[in-house]
Amino acid sequence: MLMGKKELSHEHNHNHEHNHSHEHNHEHKHGVDHIHSHRNLIGFDEHGVPTITLKSDHEEDGDDKAFIRDYMNAVSEYRKTFPSKDEVLENTPDPAVREMILRQNQLGFDTTFDRFDKQQPQCGFGMAGICCKICNMGPCKITSKSPKGVCGADADLIVARNLLRSAAAGVAQHGMHGREVILSLKWAAEGKLDLPILGQQKIKDTAKAFGIKTERRSIKKIASELADILLDDMSRTVPGDYKIIEALGLEERKKVWKELDIIPISAYHEVFEAYHKTGVGTDGDWKSIMQQFLRCGLAFTYSGVVSTSIATDGLFGVGDRVTSKVNIGALKKGYVNIAVHGHLPTLVSEIVRVGQEEKFINLAKEAGAKGIRFYGICCSGLSAMYRYAGVIPLSNAVSAELVLGTGALDLWIADVQDVFPSIMEVAKCFRTTVVTTSESARLPGAERFEYDHHHSNIGETRELAEKIVLRGIESFKDRQGIPVYIPPYEVDAEVGFSPEYVHKHYGSMKPLYEAVREGKILGIVNIVGCNNPKVVYEKCVIDVANALLRNNILILTNGCASFPLMKMGYCNVSGQEHAGESLNEFLGDLPPVWHVGECIDNTKSSGIFAGVAGEAGKPLYEMPFAFSSPEWSNEKGIDAALGFRLMGINSYHCVEAQIHGSKNVIEFLKEGTKEMLGSVMVVDTNPDSLGEKIVADIIEKRKALGWVVPDKIVHKDEELALV
Length: 723
Description:
This protein is an alpha/beta fold. 45% of the residues lie in helices and 11% in strands. The protein has a six-stranded parallel β-sheet with strand order 8-7-6-9-10-11, with helices on both faces. Helix 21 links the parallel strand 13 and strand 14.
């Protein structure tokens, strides 16, 4: 997710290349030969989480039948860590969430947490990843009685294939998002879409990295050529250079990836290849499957995230540091209340623009409303809030139906991804109008104001936006008398902490680097990811953040995981109460958690990582950085963690992947990549413990660099000061 070897998004005299000469202290083998396993090193912790042990736990450790018994027992223990709805009510940190769960109970609606309870116990074979239903000879499962599927696939192959298919789905999801935005940039440049190109400097800086001529050329011609290159990387069929990796990848990383033979042909091709390799009777080597897993990770990172971020910032602007109200209490009665939910910014940007025009505000007032207000759910809200004034973020995807349960929303605009079908039942009860905007994502009972499959109506974006806003006003009139309950919880949150903002605020990345080197900031961690009812809702994010902050670690955040951090005040200067003394000294009037935006804005986090590493003259894998998605749940979450690990940055989680059934895949995914990528994956169901593991690993990174380290880790409930 790196923006690349240059700080591309701004013009400063400090533009330096991150072309380091540092090498791993080992020789890389080529391709699949480097993927190996250390058998007899796999165990399970007290919560059933697969772990790498230093030695065999017992004599039978090398016995596959014994391992099968072990992992089934481990799955049973892991299930015991899942919280019930009652435990969520008791421990979730946001009081608004608690009140709305109880409110839904009174109204007789199921929530995510009710449905999760009803699914227990979840299938042990599915959780272990050893259920295969790829072909119609199955489904097959691996047991001591049946160690192979009908086709002969063993546990290693089945687990690897299932993992790869999830990763490929993640590439497709973020890739579809990317395609939409890149096409919007292209069509805006060509005049097919009537939108201004707001991030002109971003376009010019990025174009230079690709070798695109910028002198004496219009911004539209530059943007069109850049969009074509990004689209080519996404859909190329004839093998050739993956241009965005060549232009923006760090030299040290590109060498690693080439030696592993994991440079993609294109995002489309690698998704094709993933499903081809894992189809019936094709690739029977788990190592080869995992090599394709790594290719998908790179395709996701560069075509799904970096390209998408470039196009979004180029078309809609980079945005800036802004302050916004956050949480359900920011809902106000008496307005035409419109929620935007999903990921695609093109139509959303026009809807917000239309809804803020005097003409439509007057129409709302004629209907009896005080005006029009916009609210954000999931990434649409995050993307809009730091670009357009007055878009208020309310919740991530898991609690969307709780927001609907307030009865305060007149119109719910759903585009793509992380829009659960359960919202329709709640919307119907409160007569909230739901509209869909993409043929890719329809909901039974929703009204359709969509771009068609071929986007032949992209030129009608303004007309669609007007129709949608008018539908919101109509819905407001039709909903008079609907009961409204709004929990009184809202806070201010600051967002928009991009690499551009860091440069603007400090003059360069150097002050941030110096603070890290001197130990004022122990390290920097990016906390992201969707939410998962396998852990207490939003509590894991808060607990991990507390462990980091009290040890003077600066946090970057984006996407769904950012909502609890915003709602509980961590993205405000008041959040400094959770942080250590030296971190606060450096921050001054800044919050201890820097909110960089929506999920594709992982690029902004990695841009900050790259800038600090560049000032240090060190490769990323040596730096005191980490990635954490404590509550991750969907396929994109697999790829997001993998993207940072491909950069050499460790990933940390409170939720395990579905890998219990394969010794080889466990070893490869957790620690087998240490040698080839410089990174590992750590899972701990206890968020306090996970946070302190991150701190301990960052301290080890600092020791290796010869940088100052604290005398101890500050534990929970201890004084917030390093001694």
